[in-house]
Amino acid sequence: MNKAEFIDAVATKAGLSKKDAKCAVDSVLETITETLVKNESVSFIGFGTFSTAARAARTAKVPGTDRTVDVKATTVAKFKVGKALKEAVAK
Predict the structure, then answer these.
(1) Whole-model pTM?
(2) Residues 6+ positions from 24 with CB-CB distance below 8 Å
(3) Membrane-spanning residues where (predicted)?
């Protein structure tokens, strides 16, 4: 499912116009992004938690060669699945 299909599904389930559903989906994604940029987490009980993690600088080996490259330290987004979602998917 891509973003347009997701917006259509939200519009149908919530009884909204596609324009209103697009605005709602975009607002949710923007809010999650802004919160992660502040190194805070977003938690939806039962669904999961969006958070960030720091990755240290390291030296990595390029597959198929003996060459190594230095990888800079960075911050990455993480998602930890919640119990209800995990159980729903596992069925």
Answers:
(1) 0.83
(2) 10, 14, 16
(3) none
